[in-house]
Amino acid sequence: MKVLSLIAALPVVAAFAPNSAISNTRAVTQLEAASIQFVKGLEEKVVPDIKLTRAKDGSSGIATFGFNQPNCFDASTAEMGEVTGMFLIDDEGEMSTTDVNAKFSNGKPQSIEATYVMKSPAEWDRFMRFMENYSEANGLGFNGAK
Which positions carry the signal peptide feature in this UniProt record (predicted)? Predict the structure, then answer.
């Protein structure tokens, strides 16, 4: 399987970041399979920087997401509701975390940092399947540890 061979080759620290070779314009398709939401029903349009760490034995991992000026802070989206967590949604279902922190400057929200913890190899595999779909739809590239 492609995903399993990718996972076996992953270093301890890696990241997904916007790929400079690909336009940052979002690909819009009828079946856009993967999205990130902070407010249920409101897709986050800002593409995050994502840093991955994984235990050497593969038993656990952490994904840290950084969003600058996310659209969930826009006044036009305020009526949609409050940030209640980060929801990673695709055709397989939903993963979520409540470890979401906003950073403020001069009393105004500027960014969000969210952490998703994977406690088993199966959760890591599931997350990587989500990221493969999300990265294809949003022009992210994978950069292994150096």
Answer: 1-15
**DSSP class per residue in 92-141:** TEEEEE--EEEEEETTEEEEEEEEEEE-SHHHHHHHHHHHHHHHHHHTEE
Q: What is the pLDDT of residues 40-75, one digit of tens each?
A: 999 999 999 999 999 999 899 999 999 999 999 887
pTM value is 0.76
Cα–Cα distance list, 81 to 65, 90, 96, 130 (Å): 21, 21, 17, 25
CA 68 to chain CA centroid, Å, is 13
User: Distance (Å, rounded) from C-alpha 130 to C-alpha 34?
Assistant: 7
pLDDT tens-place string over residues 80-94:
889 999 999 999 999
CATH topology of domain 35-126: Elongation Factor Tu (Ef-tu); domain 3 (2.40.30)
Q: How far is it, in rounded angstroms, from Cα 75 to Cα 11? A: 40
Q: Which two tokens stand for residue 61?
A: 């991992």
> Three-state SS for 11?
coil
Residue 90: CB atoms within 10 Å: 20
